[in-house]
């Protein structure tokens, strides 16, 4: 049994990570800026981190300001690592995204800088492909429009519970530096995924594949965010939709 500090415990990934680590018998300290978790702390200011880190064996760093393109994430990661050093240098595992080093997308630049800090500390970096929930969010957003636009890119969506399983395995055998990338079980076209969503919700709206401009989307079209050689045997997009859309 380990004492594990989990940043981002209230997030899309953090919730299944906390649940799985607890079923493995670990003492999980959920961290959030808001009340309701075990520890209240703000990574960007650093307030509350020393208390949260006292006596931990490992840290799973899932927090990110995803809604504001990672604003404050580099400072937050630095604050976390400094506090971890003061607390005796526990293992830190950072969750990142496949392709952050090759896709010129502002949020990915932030993730790459945070990765480097974690690597300098001696922690582990696990890159995953897009979560099913992320694709679902995009489909829901697009469906607000009368004609549903879908980017003409491939995606390799993965279930957060499958990412959680890899995190649990990584904590059992901690490794410094990059872990093998983690990709979902299928590489599918985003317009097809959005079509599946429309079908699942009974929508008959027209869908159009759109070509988004810029270097980042060129890189996405080239598949820089995919790891077809690292398919997991986990939950497929179709399985996910069946559970989420009733
Ligand atoms: N979405 C994807 O498809 C995808 C794919 C691969 C990797 N990832 C990575 O996986 C990680 C988790 O993503 P997610 O989708 O679960 O994110 P999310 O749902 O947006 O959750 C973000 C979490 O970060 C916490 N947070 C943000 N700023 C904070 C701060 N200053 N101090 C403390 N906590 C802070 C939030 O906690 P409170 O609001 O409760 O404070 C929340 O729990 C991220 O690093 C992301 O880059 C995501």
From TrEMBL:
Residue span, NAD(P)-binding domain: 8-172
SUPFAM superfamilies: NAD(P)-binding Rossmann-fold domains
InterPro entries tied to this protein: NAD(P)-bd_dom, NAD(P)-bd_dom_sf, NmrA-like_oxidored
Keywords: NADP
One protein family per Pfam: NAD_binding_10
Protein's UniProt keywords contain NADP: yes
Keyword NADP applies: yes
Name by which UniProt lists this protein: Nucleotide-diphosphate-sugar epimerase
Organism of provenance: Actinoplanes couchii
